[in-house]
Design a protein that fits this description.
The protein is 84% helix and 0% strand. By secondary structure, it is mainly α. The radius of gyration is 22 Å and the shape is elongated. It starts with a helix and ends with a helix.
């Protein structure tokens, strides 16, 4: 084996490792924001059920506002993570084409990346129905709505005597 081939194999290995890194990093970030958001919702609901002081209602409204922020940030993090992962998929596909090897296109989306000519549109596209990313996107959207309605409800009970 010559050094050029060894360097190309090493580079390909780095690209595949970067893909795995992106998948794990994005999943860990999504879990973090989901857990934080659900914790905020459960704690705020617990406080509403146990304590009936106006001060607690102000604090709970702040918690629901914090929940809106964390779910929105989680949604944006999900979308940015998808973008990063798709970029590395395209890099991997380009490198496989350059090496003339049959790549590790194990998912429909990876195969789509190889065939797709509109790369920037594909990278920025929102998740499609039926994918795990779509369900995560939907979950963050529902959490944002849930926190918003809860904030309106709690704030409404503070304002009205």
């Amino acid at each position: 084996m010559n050094t050029g081939t060894m360097q190309q194999e090493k580079l390909y290995e780095l690209i595949v490792n970067e893909y795995h890194f992106q998948v794990n990093l994005n999943w860990n970030r999504n879990k973090f924001f989901i857990i934080v958001n659900l914790t905020i919702i459960f704690f705020a609901c617990f406080l509403l059920g146990v304590v009936e002081f106006k001060v607690i209602q102000y604090f709970v409204s702040y918690l629901f506002f914090l929940g809106i922020l964390t779910s929105f940030i989680g949604l944006q993090t999900l979308l940015k993570g998808i973008e990063y992962r798709r970029r590395i998929i395209l890099q991997k596909a380009k490198f496989e084409s350059m090496l003339r090897i049959d790549g590790l296109n194990t998912t429909v989306r990876m195969q789509e990346a190889v065939r797709n000519g509109k790369t920037e549109e594909w990278i920025k596209r929102i998740p499609r129905f039926g994918t795990i990313n779509f369900y995560l996107f939907s979950l963050f959207f529902v959490l944002t709505l849930l926190n918003s309605f809860a904030l309106i409800f709690v704030f409404g009970s503070i304002v009205t005597p």
